[in-house]
Structure formats: C-alpha cells, structure tokens
Amino acid sequence: MKRWIIFSIALFTTTAQADTLTLSENDAVKIALGKNPEMHAYKLGTQARLAGITEEEAQFGRQLSMKVSHRDNREPSVSSLEGVPTTSTNAQTMGLSLTQKLKTGGQYDVTFSQNRTSDNAGFRTINPVYNSDVQVTFSQPLLRGRGSVNKIGLDIAQNNLTQANIDLEGYERDLKADVRTAYWYLVLAQKNFKVKQQRYNGRQRVLETVKARIEMGVEARNSILQAELGVAQSEEDIIAAEDRIYDAEDRLKTLMGWADQPNTRITPTNAPTITDFNDDLNQGIQRAIESNTTYKNTKIDVNTRELLAHQAKDQTRPEVNLTFRAGLSGIGSNYSDELKGLSDADGRSWLGGFSIEMPSGTSTNQSRYQQRLMAVEQAELRQDYQRMQLTEIVRERFRQVRTDQRRSDVVKL
Question: CA 398 → CA 25, 148, 287, 387, 395, distances in Å?
C-alpha cells in the first residue's frame, strides 16, 4: 500500500508537470463565456426573439404585386350583329397594386390596371380597345381595431426579446458565479491535497521513529500499531483528496466547455483574498430584486398580460369602419388616347361610406376580457410574493454571514 500511494503522488505530480494549464480566475470566466454550450443556446434564443419582432413589423410593410395575363378565345357567333360565324377575342391585362396596413388599423390600396382587347365583331367602333384604371381605396376602423391595439403583437414580441435578454444576462451572471465557485473549490482541493501529503509525511516519520526506538529497546512493540494506523489513514486521505481534485477539475472544465479534454490538468494562479462585507441590508435587498431573473421576467409578464387585456377589451367594442374609394379611368384606340383620357379624368368615380356591427347580449369577448383582467391580477400577486421571498432570502443570507463573522472573531480570540 505504501508503495502504491507514493506512486500515486508521483503520478499526479508528473501529470501536472507534463500537461498543465495555468489558469487565473478571470481567464476561466472568459473561456466559459466564450465556449459554454448553454451560453450559446441562450444567445440563439435572443436571436429567435429578434426574428419574432421582424415578423411582427413585416405586417406593417408595403406589399407590391404585379399580374400579367393573356387570353385568347374563339367560339361560334350567337348574334347576327357580330357579322361573323365565329368570334375571336384577344385580351392582354397588366395590373399593379400597392397595399399597406397602418398601425392605426387602417389600410390603403393603390391599384393600376391596363387592358387591351380586340375581336372580329362587326359592331365594334373601336378595335382594339385600350382602357386603363387607377383606384385608391382607404379603410379605417373607428372603434374596434383602431389605434395602439394594432401594435400589441409587436409590443409582445419586444417583451419576449426583453425576457430573452434577461434570461441571457441571468445565465451569464450565474455562469460567472459557478465558474468562480468551481475555481476556488479546485484551489481548496489542491491545497487540501498538499496538507494530506504533509500529514502523510509526518506520520511516516513518526512510524520510522517508532521503529527505531523499538530496535533500540526503548519502545514497546505494540506501539508500532498506532503509528501504522496513522500512516494508513493518511494514505486513505490522500486518495480521497486526489479524487476531489479530479472532480473539481471536471466541474470547472464542464463550465468552460472543455469537457472533451480529460487529460489536461489545471493549475490555478489566484490566491484567496478576504474582502470586507457590505453590511447594508436594504441595499442588498434592492440589488437582489433588481438583478433577480425570475422577478424581472414576472414584471415583463405583467406588462404582457396587460397588453392582452387591452386587446380583449378592444374586441368588446362595436365595429365601425370607414371606407373611401376614388378612381380614374381612360379608354381609347391606342395607348396615347387611353393615357390622355386618364390624365384628363374623363372617367372618374368615388365611393364613401361606413359600416356598423354591434354585439347583442353577453358575448364571448366580454368573458375573455374578464379572464385577461384576472390574469393580470394573478401576475401582479405573483410578483409581490416573489419580492417577499427575495427579501426573506437576503435577510437569511445576511444573518448567516454575520454569524460566520462572529464565529471567526471568537476563534481568533
């Protein structure tokens, strides 16, 4: 056993010298922030939420469309006025439209169409016929669907992005804390291993001294049992201490994204330091509330539920829509005549009106609105309870630190 433990100590020392990474606490944190897989997953989450905002904004973008068609038709004549046994019709159509939904809830459409039609009918005074048409249509809700309610989807998407950023910041903060904890646990494990080595060496010297005294006849032979027991206990402590070092290294490597490098040993360069404890309890409570990920997300969730309640309330209003449409048209035997008629506004039309739709009796929209209001209240109560929980936790940790400090002062005395 003695030879084995000496070989184990030598193996640990040789391995550390052969394949060692010298690492400071700040370096460990930087590596973890750059290589930790979970960190990258949270970053992808923020990118996905950003894409959701882009998707919501797209509904208020302009849409341009174009349509081109050609039609050729031949069929037997059904009227003597046509003057031919078989009528032949040829038509080409080109259309352009521009549409945009407004954040006020309204929508406008601008369309332009141009047609050319020719046939072999005898009664045609213009052949081919060129005609064009320009129309502008605008519709605007006056009650339901008017105003900021149309941006609720965008506002919720922005809230989702805010929550994703909060989650990212929270994980980054937790990762830094976990890396630092793992780093100092490794420092403690390595120092503990050295202490166990020193104790082993000391007990080994005691054993050699006892053996020498027995050979000199000044020590009873049964005294060697206690010395050998102490050496055996130290050998066991060294084995356990070395195992703790490997565990601490694996934990730190996992956090840094280096789990695939099991043979690399880590040598910390930082030494422990003692810092003064900020004993301002109120500042500690406020800092905990402002930085707590769950509390901040709940605060955003309250706002999201308020937006949904506002949307549900809007659905309980009567639907009153205003519509206006105006158009110009031109016709001629060629493109010039057609465009001149269009510019001179020879053909024009307009239409205006509004429509009203009112719910009768209790509707599902009213019930949905009440549900949304209760959801807001639930989220607010949850937020208040989380604040109380955070206050309790900070006070408990504050008392624990104070207690540890007092115990340390007593030990010093």
Answer: 25, 46, 13, 16, 5
